[in-house]
Design goal:
Largest sheet: 6 strands, antiparallel
InterPro entries: DUF1499 (IPR010865)
Order of helices and strands: HEEEEHEEEEH
Number of domains: 1
CATH topology: TATA-Binding Protein
CATH superfamily: Kinase associated domain 1, KA1
Number of helices: 3
Radius of gyration: 18 Å
Pfam families: DUF1499
Strand content: 25-35%
Structural class: alpha+beta
Protein name: DUF1499 domain-containing protein
CATH architecture: 2-Layer Sandwich
Distance between the termini: 61 Å
Amino acid sequence: MKLLLTLIAVLIIAALIGLSVMGMMSKSGGAPGLISGKLSQCPESPNCVCTEFQIDTDHYLPPATYNSNEISTVRKQVRAAINASGGELLRERDNYFVATYTSGTFGFVDDLEVRIEQDTKQIHIRSASRVGYSDLGANRERASKLKSLLGGV
């Protein structure tokens, strides 16, 4: 019984160390950026969501839409939504935004990218983990929350 408890304790400690190391690893890197004017497609892992590629049903989320004719109003709303959802805006250029979100427990860093498409009046979102495989739905939840904060722009 004592050996079993020791083994369980060692496994728990190893898992916590592994998660801490992954959290530190996620601090390097960054958002992939635009490719041919669009957000990057998600990798095969389930820790990413993107509104650009409807054909990728595992990672797809419909884009947000807006009605305003003033793009400055839409940009302001995107900045406010990122801030309200706990993101740190790192970069803004024209109609493209990059932000990061950091988890509390192990400090995992996720990247969020937003692209405003003026022709279709859509706001495209990509949210992805930098490390690991599963995110327990955190990126889908974040993108959905951002969409709801942008509703009615």
